[in-house]
């Protein structure tokens, strides 16, 4: 199991770096996510969730549609968030790039880098997650920015992306602690805005809902076999399902699937994020998605 987490983490980290290197002025988001997802599959893992490329004040959950024409422009701030799994054991990781090599948001990116390093440095058995949230908050505020208070890291389990524990980015009221063997995604978000996101409209990513029905049984069975309990993208179904827009709308309306909303910073602040997946060990933690040897 740990070996699966390590392999998934390594491949997710490489795919993240590869994806970030492709984000250039004029390049289409659709091309980048396809190449990230191909990379994961060609290197011996499966895709844990659709690769997302969230731009500027979009903090998370944007993936292109099958016919999306969005292209990057110089100076935009792009969060590249990538997930790979091996036998359901997930590596979840993200980095922020400024398109075309501009440096307007270097400090914002450094704020999340430092916050992530500090949070990882505090992770060990029995570490209280509210204090780690407090350390993230203080670090980001020391750069003059705000942490996003309603986005959190999360524990991972086999085929489960958010499995119960939350890792806050502010000091909150939780009394949760991590324990040896827990696998956790740590993901500070910093913004030039007020520090809150809201879902303004449904995006192009879905998960299975709670309601069971025989409606569109073939499509639902296909989703369950291919993606199990993990999120999936509209563009993944497009080659296989006719009248896809109508079908997804109807499945959503009936509660059979649920869309993830695109998350915008409420004051239109720019947002940076950095994320690693870690395994809590007896002594501290092991970072599965690190490709730089940063955590030795
Ligand atoms: Mn992520
Ligand atoms: Mn995550």
Q: Please, could you describe this protein's structure?
A:
The chain is α+β, with helices and mostly antiparallel strands and 296 residues long. It has two domains: 215 residues, Alpha-Beta Complex (Creatine Amidinohydrolase), CATH 3.90.230.10; 62 residues, Winged helix-like DNA-binding domain superfamily/Winged helix DNA-binding domain (Arc Repressor Mutant, subunit A). 31% of the residues lie in helices and 27% in strands. The chain is built from seven helices and 15 strands. The strands form four sheets. The chain has a five-stranded antiparallel sheet, with helices on both faces. A four-stranded antiparallel sheet has the order 2-12-10-11. A three-stranded antiparallel sheet has the order 1-3-4, covered by helices on one side. α1 packs antiparallel against α2 and α3 packs antiparallel against α4. It starts with a helix and ends in a 9-residue tail after the last strand. The mean pLDDT is 96. The chain binds manganese (II) ion (2 copies). The site of one manganese (II) ion has 4 residues, from β4.
The assigned structural class equals alpha+beta
| Order of strands in the sheet with most strands | 7-6-8-14-15
What overall form do the CA principal axes indicate?
A: globular
Helix content: 25-40%
Bound molecules: manganese (II) ion
Q: In the CATH classification, which architecture of the largest domain applies?
A: Alpha-Beta Complex
């Amino acid at each position: 199991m740990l070996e699966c987490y390590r392999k998934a983490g390594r491949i997710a980290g490489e795919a993240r770096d590869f994806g970030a290197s492709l984000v250039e002025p004029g390049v289409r988001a659709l091309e980048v996510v396809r190449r990230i997802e191909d990379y994961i599959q060609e290197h011996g893992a499966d895709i844990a969730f659709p690769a997302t490329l969230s731009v500027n004040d979009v903090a998370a959950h944007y993936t292109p549609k099958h016919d999306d024409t969005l292209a990057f422009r110089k100076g935009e701030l792009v969060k590249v968030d990538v997930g790979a799994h091996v036998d359901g054991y997930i590596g979840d990781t993200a980095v922020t790039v400024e398109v075309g090599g501009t440096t307007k948001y270097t400090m914002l990116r450094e704020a999340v880098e430092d916050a992530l390093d500090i949070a990882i440095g505090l992770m060990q058995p029995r570490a209280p997650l509210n204090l780690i949230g407090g350390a993230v908050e203080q670090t980001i505020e020391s750069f003059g920015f705000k942490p996003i208070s309603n986005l959190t890291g999360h524990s991972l389990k086999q085929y489960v992306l958010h499995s119960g524990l939350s890792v806050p980015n502010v000091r909150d009221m939780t009394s949760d602690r991590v324990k040896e063997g827990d696998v956790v995604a740590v993901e500070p978000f910093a913004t030039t805005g007020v520090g809150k996101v809201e879902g303004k409209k449904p995006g192009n990513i879905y998960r299975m809902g709670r309601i069971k029905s025989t409606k569109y049984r073939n499509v639902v069975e296909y989703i369950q076999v291919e993606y199990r309990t993990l999120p999936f993208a509209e563009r993944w179904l497009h080659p296989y399902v006719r009248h896809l827009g109508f079908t997804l709308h109807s499945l959503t309306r009936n509660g059979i699937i649920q869309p993830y909303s695109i998350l915008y910073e409420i004051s239109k602040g720019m947002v940076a994020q950095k994320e690693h997946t870690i395994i809590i060990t007896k002594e501290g933690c092991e970072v599965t998605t690190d490709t730089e040897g940063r955590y030795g």
